[in-house]
Amino acid sequence: MIRLRDVGFRYDAAGASGASAPVALRQISFEVPQGGFRWLLGPSGAGKSSLLRLLALTARPTSGTLEILGSSVAQARRAALARLRRRIGVVHQDFRLLPDLPVFDNIALPLRLQHRPEDEVRDEVHSILDWVGLASRATARPPQLSGGEQQRVAIARAVIHRPALLLADEPTNALDEYQANRLMELFRDLSGLGTTILVATHNDALIRRYPAHELELAQGRLLRDG
Amino acid sequence: MAERPGLFTRWNQARRADGLALRRALPDRLLPLLVAAMTVLAALALAGATGAQILSARWSNGAASMLTIQVPDPDTPTTTAGTTTHLTRSDAVLAALADSPGASRVHRLDKAELGALLAPWLGQDHDFALTLPAIIELHMAAGTQTDATALARRLAAIAPGTLVERNAEWGERLGRLADSLHSCALLAVAIVAGIAVVLIAATTRAGLAARRLPIELIHAMGATDGYIAGRFARRTALLAFIGGLAGSGLALPILVLLSRVAAPFAAATPAPTPASSADWTMLAHTLLATLPTPLVATLLALAPAAALIGWLTTQATVRAWLRNLP
């Protein structure tokens, strides 16, 4: 589960510090139980990406308390944070694939960082490549793929290690309706298996098709939790 | 539960595909070249340190433990209480010296040795018109303290005019000089090591900057500081080891040459000059044997030491850099 209590986040922008640094989030409090699914809504600049960064442990709150998968982030040591990160999957809006690595190795990264045996890595990656329909592109490099294909690789990489927490920032942006629906079915299955999922999106049609608990942000504040 | 793969397998997996692309982050030309140059400098400084140490030991234990005695009119019979004895002055002094406590060797320089000693001033002609004094070397056992003044008084009573020259004073001065040279050489080694650390740190930081995005990504996916630092450190250690080996190889002929030049001062036997190119293979073994053992050991340790410096510096640099990430 995840729990936030009065969480604030201020960007330490170059030249800006302390009170003059831009505030991204103010006094955010909510909880998501294990296996819970939340839509994260709000206009651009509302703080959705900042919140996902905090939950992905790639930034630390500047105030309040944040608990991820049962661990308090403020008190966790660096090694413990690394272990936590290995239990989190993230689909970035800009995909963040490594252009030097083939699709296969990009997807295999989370498993290799967990030191899984190479046989197991191979089986898992081929299996998910089949699922995302990219079995024939395993050796291609990300710059050789279309936007939709890159997004499917990013999704495959985020879920291959069956994370306990899955965070997705506009994961259907580059997908057609069929692929988007398949992705939502996957999210539903993972949620049923105990994965806590937060999905940031502007896709109203998708939200209507898959109604769920919503967290709405505006100007860095949580407007709605329900 | 799946069995944990072996260390090599894990290393090989990580090397292949974690996106760090260290060959691009830490190119394999510049760093080995710089480390090779540093290794040559370190080898030369260490050779200086070893040479100074050997000379210091030799001067302290050799010249410093010897007394030189001059006996004028060596062949004149001695007189005791106005009575002439059958002993010459030099024989009487030699007999007295042989009975001295702590004397390990008493040696009177023969005519040829005297001639060699005086050759710089009197030429190679050993037929001197004047009667030369007897020169006697008195070698004392290690650790023996000799009262040169008391000895001079005792010998003067036996053969008036006998002079005792204490070499220890010169030995001590030379020893202090050698010790200073040794310290300077070690300081030079420390400076070279310091420069190597700065160079490796700068190269590592450039590599980190070049691969910032992949590092941030795998850090966000759960790669520990130890994993990322270890990947960079292994690469640097390998490149530094190669550079160290190359530098040691380059330094070897220079050190052998210096060793040959310094051999007379260190009382070592210089290596034979090869008669033909066929002898060079055998000479390679002889060359290492020519060098003082501590220097050979140091030379062999340079490449591992370079690798260790590279590994430690990179570990520290990468871990400090990663502290900027949450």
UniProtKB/TrEMBL annotation, chain A:
This is Cell division ATP-binding protein FtsE. One of its GO terms (cellular component) is plasma membrane. InterPro entries: AAA+_ATPase (IPR003593), ABC_transporter-like_ATP-bd (IPR003439), ABC_transporter-like_CS (IPR017871), ABC_transpr_LolD-like (IPR015854), P-loop_NTPase (IPR027417). GO terms for molecular function: ATP binding; ATP hydrolysis activity; transmembrane transporter activity. Part of the ABC transporter FtsEX involved in cellular division. Important for assembly or stability of the septal ring. It comes from Gluconacetobacter tumulicola. The keyword Nucleotide-binding applies. The keyword DNA-binding does not apply. It comes from the Bacteria. Keywords: ATP-binding, Nucleotide-binding. Residues 2-226 form the ABC transporter domain. Gene3D superfamilies: P-loop containing nucleotide triphosphate hydrolases. Pfam families: ABC_tran. Belongs to the ABC transporter superfamily.
TrEMBL record, chain B:
GO terms for biological process: cell division. GO terms for cellular component: cell division site; plasma membrane. PANTHER family: CELL DIVISION PROTEIN FTSX. Signal peptide: none annotated. The keyword Iron does not apply. InterPro entries: ABC3_permease_C (IPR003838), FtsX (IPR004513). Keywords: Cell membrane, Membrane, Transmembrane, Transmembrane helix. This is ABC transporter permease. It comes from Gluconacetobacter tumulicola. It holds the Pfam family FtsX. Its main location: membrane. Residues 187-293 form the ABC3 transporter permease C-terminal domain. It is found in: Cell membrane. It is a multi-pass membrane protein. The keyword Signal does not apply. The chain crosses the membrane at residues 30-55, 180-202, 237-263, 283-313.
